[in-house]
Task: structure prediction
Amino acid sequence: DVKVTQSSRYLVKRTGEKVFLECVQDMDHENMFWYRQDPGLGLRLIYFSYDVKMKEKGDIPEGYSVSREKKERFSLILESASTNQTSMYLCASSRDRDTDTQYFGPGTRLTVL
Amino acid sequence: AQKVTQAQTEISVVEKEDVTLDCVYETRDTTYYLFWYKQPPSGELVFLIRRNSFDEQNEISGRYSWNFQKSTSSFNFTITASQVVDSAVYFCALSEANSGNTPLVFGKGTRLSVIA
Result:
């Protein structure tokens, strides 16, 4: 079974704080993804990575950065959290590029006060 | 550009009823894949099915079935004899072989409530 884990289910931070969301997968997948999910807007891709130390911008990268130092770990960084970044964050991984099935973690519900 | 439309925002059915969730997609690619995911109240997206554009055979898995019709660009999902545990948000998604910077595009989701 594919397992994708995220460091926290719930997180509360203050405006201006630096926030790290961690994601780990145990299936040796090449590709990892970060999405945010908001009511009425569905899932939107923030960043993704096809290999260690590589990253690609998704549809809404502004205000975020990522880090992939190891194959199994993909971190999402909010350099200076803002209230409009309050959202559900979902991490996913897949074996092959583009068309392979993405498997998701349980999500992190982030609240920025 | 690729696009997925799930016109039904919310559906409510009584337990044991059959229910169909609609999914219409747009793509200019001839090679693409379609997916359905389930998101229960716990929040995790659970993969249900992946179907490629060259395989139009319908798929059945227990109470779940999927109807793929390229002629109408639709990939509909039917739950037979619905149960309360089927209550969730269901997402349809599309990926193209040459997807550029958006590997997987999701519809907005359909919230299904099954009432006992």
About this structure: The interface with chain B takes residues 9, 31, 33, 40-43, 45, 48, 56-59, 88, 90, 92, 94, 97-99, 101-107, 109 of chain A (CB under 8 Å). The mean pLDDT of chain A is 93. The first strand of chain A starts at residue 4 and ends at 6.
